[in-house]
Design goal:
By secondary structure, the protein is an alpha/beta fold.
């Protein structure tokens, strides 16, 4: 058991050195720092230490002033015992030097950082460097209040974007450290974050920001967005840059890249390097291995997700310290679509189903003509019997895929010429399925020279970079159709997408909405592309009943979490040790214990998870622990050590999977479980049979490969044989999986026909067809009447008509079919104030009559943009006021102090705005309602 002196020398000194502190340089680190707490007591000096306190370590800045206090306790006790002591030292040093140091206390294994007067103590995973502490101090002194800080509305100027940024800034002011934004795909999460980053940098709250994404394509997309909106901020990585660089301000990385950086022993980053981390698509994918990144860095953290609030997992809210169902800010797809004007595109769903999808492929469903062809090919129709759900899994039918492609080409939303489909994503089941769809497009439409449809999959290097397939799809006329497997399901921004084809079933509700989100973005008027000049909605072609599935199962199918392979191997090996001890097989127990120790030694030393468990792992480093494994020790290995194996990533998993199989079969052999042994043995023999002896490296082990495929070998197998299989065949498993072609699906080309095709309703309400139809009939009738009606002719030629003539026109129209009145026109065109003549001018194309809700919405957006300092409660009030005005058509002053405005504050507008602001708002709404 280490005392405090040993803890300091053997652990704390080393961890300070790792952070760049020279313990022997008193211009950097002073041990037993003398703090005078009572000048009078020191002068009288009844004892040598009277009136003094001595801090274990004080870390000095370049100016020689104390930057931080480190209070040390021995490793056997809780670090929190030093908490109050460290705080006292900090405040007493402040009296002495005029500057409050940062507060740290530790028992060597656990380090806590306490930013006194700002945040509560927080466990951290390494001491800050001197540069970190100098930066902390600069930020602490330089940062401004965020309350009135202006937001750059050129980057994020929509009302909800401003409200989201304001909600995060208000939470930062309240010293919250974690935030969660739930914003529908296409509502500008990235732009919102960029505007937030700019504001935090401008106000001195952040100097370095990390933006984490889950794929390279999203990293490149985010880099482009930061380049566009914050062109003067240095970014990492530059094109082709691999090594991490410490001289940038904006860092954009995939999770695996950043995990490798923080685990690296040569090029690691300090846990205090970033001031803000933004995590894109913060859901389950980050809970396991990648949560280590969030645990490692000591910083404020913002999570982003498009997953609807009611589906967001409890763990996500917990991770960002939010109550279930209550993110920092939320903005839904429904809100965006129903906004006036809409912020996102609505969609139509066409469901198609083929005969084979509905009834399967069998003698009963295959046409007689195709059955005759089968006989000529020497095949038996009786042998063919597949369910509809087997398509593209056990069986592939070219006729079904061809039918889906033809239906898509017929029903798809086309470009302005009405010939080719607009930009489209085909979501396919497998890469082989995607290639088959591509071949069908090329065969049916050869005139486009193979450019119409292209497969985009993540393991194809041609997809990435400037001029790559994804870049072509986004920025060029061709290809029009991207055929994808998983890669384009999330995060890819192509505003011109007007068709999505679900050529596969989807069971995750989160993923389903992410896929739909690919089409929700509206066009940007300033960035119109010739192949897509308008987009009012987009089409979803659902070939697998996905919408029906989610109507019945609103949250989809929960995927079970898989136990990582290293954890499973460790667990099975531990089971084998336990069984060997039970059977007094001491040699086996000893042999497996050595292998278990090797697995523990391979744990990544710099992983936060392993550093956290260092104190517990000291037990297994002691040789005596392994001399006699008691049940208590086995329980410790199972409950404490086994879960740590999840951190192992840089290993040959194909070899490890084979090793796990061998350990499992050896356990069943040891336990005399004959049935299980036979089943596992057969599976392993099949694996071994697939090793290609044509490869020289594999051929060297031909003897054991052939032996291990015989029942005689397994009937006589001994413990040493299992070890030999692991030693000699594990490294060869790479060749089995990389060179052996798996058994493919059965392939046919039977003619398939449509079973059903229909439009269905799902999600936000669509526009009432009766109103739309009536408006179309009115406009058609008015344009017909121009030839015969002199009053309409006058208006058409730009001549104003008198009040009497307007009454006459109203009477003329009243007698027409459809029945036309000013009241009906006000309802149809959603304008409460317009007169008949204004409607006629609008229909005749003389002057645009903007709908009242459009006018109100645009005016409120402009008002909010001009007042970007408003807080989240004030923005909420204005949003409510906008809805009230659109619904009622007018607002009186007394309305503003009654319901529904009293929901926001009991005093209504008086409790939310100042008198000057109230007067400005009243003038604004009176002008609007006039």
């Amino acid at each position: 058991m280490k005392n405090e002196k040993h803890t300091r020398k053997e652990i704390i000194d080393i961890r300070l050195k790792q952070a760049g502190w020279n313990i022997n340089d008193r211009t950097q680190v002073v041990e037993e720092f003398d703090i005078i707490i009572d000048e009078n007591l020191v002068r009288e000096a009844p004892t040598p230490y009277a009136g003094h306190q001595f801090s274990d370590y004080v870390l000095l800045g370049k100016d020689g002033k104390p930057l931080a206090v480190v209070e040390a306790k021995k490793s056997a006790v809780d670090a929190a015992i030093g908490r109050e002591q460290a705080k006292q030292y900090c405040y007493n040093i402040q009296k002495q030097s005029g500057q409050l140091p940062f507060c740290f206390y530790t028992n060597g294994h656990d380090i806590y950082y306490w930013d006194l007067e700002n945040y509560p103590p927080k466990k951290i995973h390494g001491f800050p460097t001197r540069d970190d502490l100098e930066r902390f101090l600069y930020i602490k002194k330089a940062r401004k209040s965020l309350v009135g800080e202006l937001i750059n509305t050129k980057i994020a100027g929509r009302d909800y974007q401003i409200a989201a940024i304001r909600a995060v800034m208000e939470a930062i002011e309240k010293r919250r450290r974690k935030f969660l934004l739930i914003m529908a795909t296409g509502t500008g999460k990235t732009r919102t974050c960029i505007a937030l980053v700019e504001t935090l940098m401008k106000s001195g709250w952040a100097e370095r920001v990390l933006f984490l994404v889950d794929r390279i394509a999203l990293r490149d997309q985010t880099l482009e967005a930061f380049k566009e909106h914050l062109p003067n901020e240095p970014r990492w990585p530059n094109q082709g840059e691999k090594e991490i660089s410490a001289d940038r301000r904006i860092y954009i990385s995939t999770y695996p890249t950043m995990l490798n950086i923080i685990r690296s022993e040569e090029k690691s980053l300090s846990p205090h390097f970033f001031d803000l981390i933004i995590i894109d698509e913060s859901h389950r994918s980050i809970y396991n291995t990648y949560q280590e990144i969030l645990d490692y860095f000591n910083t404020i953290t913002l999570g982003l997700t498009a997953t609807p609030t009611d589906v967001v997992d409890h763990n996500t809210f917990q991770l960002f310290e939010c109550e279930d169902g209550l993110p920092t800010f939320a903005y839904t797809y429904e809100e965006a679509v129903n906004n006036i004007p809409p912020y996102l595109s609505n969609f139509q769903v066409m469901k198609i189903k083929t005969k084979f999808q509905e009834d399967g492929i069998s003698k009963r469903t295959v046409s007689l003509e195709d059955q005759k062809k089968l006989i000529l090919e020497g095949k038996e129709i009786e042998e063919i019997n597949f369910e509809g759900t087997d398509l593209e899994k056990k069986v592939s039918n070219k006729g079904t895929n061809t039918l889906i492609v033809r239906e898509f080409m017929e029903e798809s939303i086309k470009d302005a010429n009405g010939v080719l489909p607009g930009k489209t994503i085909f979501f396919c089941m497998t890469k082989a399925h995607a290639r088959r769809i591509e071949e069908i497009f090329d065969a049916l439409y050869p005139e486009y020279n193979g450019e119409l449809a292209k497969v985009l999959v993540s393991d194809d290097p041609r997809v990435y970079g400037k001029g790559g397939l994804l870049d072509q799809f986004t920025h060029q006329d061709m290809p029009r159709i991207a055929i994808s497997v998983d890669m384009l399901d999330t995060g890819i921004d192509v505003r011109e997408l007007v068709n999505l084809v679900f050529a596969k079933p989807v069971y995750s509700y989160t993923k389903f909405w992410q896929m739909i989100g690919r089409g929700t973005r509206l066009l940007e008027p300033s960035k119109m592309k010739p192949w897509c000049t308008e987009k009012s909605n987009f089409l979803i072609l659902d070939c697998w009943d996905n919408f029906d599935y989610f109507k019945l199962n609103p949250k989809g199918k929960e995927l079970k979490s898989q136990i990582p392979l290293p954890v499973r191997l460790f667990g099975i090996r531990l089971d084998k040790i336990e069984k060997a001890i039970e059977l007094n097989e001491n040699e086996i127990s000893k042999n497996e214990s050595i292998k278990l120790r090797k697995q523990i030694e391979n744990l990544p030393k710099n992983s936060v998870v392993i550093l956290d468990a260092k104190h517990e792992l000291q037990r297994v480093e002691d040789d005596n622990f392994w001399n006699f494994l008691t049940q208590d020790k086995i329980d410790f290995l199972r409950n404490v050590v086994k879960p740590l194996l999840r951190t192992i990533s840089n290993v040959d998993f194909k070899a490890m999977r084979f090793e796990k199989d061998i350990v499992e079969v050896s356990l069943s052999h040891l336990a005399d479980e004959k049935d299980k042994f036979e089943a596992l043995k057969d599976s392993i023999m099949e694996e071994i049979s697939e090793l290609p002896l044509t490869v020289n490296t594999v051929a060297k082990e031909e003897k054991i490969i052939r032996q291990a495929q015989t029942n005689h070998y397994w009937s006589k197998i001994k413990e040493t044989d299992f070890d030999e299989l692991i030693e000699k065949l594990c490294p060869l498993m790479y060749f089995r999986e990389s060179l052996v072609v798996p058994l493919g699906t059965a392939k046919y080309n039977f003619k398939d026909v449509l079973h059903s095709k229909e439009y269905i309703e799902f999600g936000p309400e669509h526009e009432s067809l009766s109103i739309a139809k009536y408006r179309e009939m009115v406009e058609q009738k008015v344009n017909e009447l121009v030839k015969a009606n002199p009053l309409l002719q006058k208006l058409k030629s730009g001549v104003e008509i008198t009040e009497e003539e307007a009454k006459q026109l109203a009477e003329d129209l009243h007698n027409e079919k459809p029945f036309i009145t000013v009241d009906l026109l006000r309802r149809v065109y959603n304008h409460r104030k317009a007169q008949l003549v204004q409607f006629m001018k609008h229909i005749l194309g003389i002057e645009l009559l903007e709908a009242f809700p459009d006018t109100v919405s645009k005016s409120f957006d402009l008002f909010i943009e001009q007042h970007s300092y408003l807080n989240s409660r004030q923005l909420e009030f204005l949003n409510l006021l906008k809805s009230f005005l659109i619904e009622k058509g007018e607002v009186e002053k007394r309305d503003l102090i009654n319901a529904p405005f009293t929901r926001i504050h009991p005093d209504g507008i008086r409790g939310v705005f100042s008198n000057a602001e109230i007067n400005e708002i009243i003038v604004f709404i009176e002008k609007l309602a006039a």
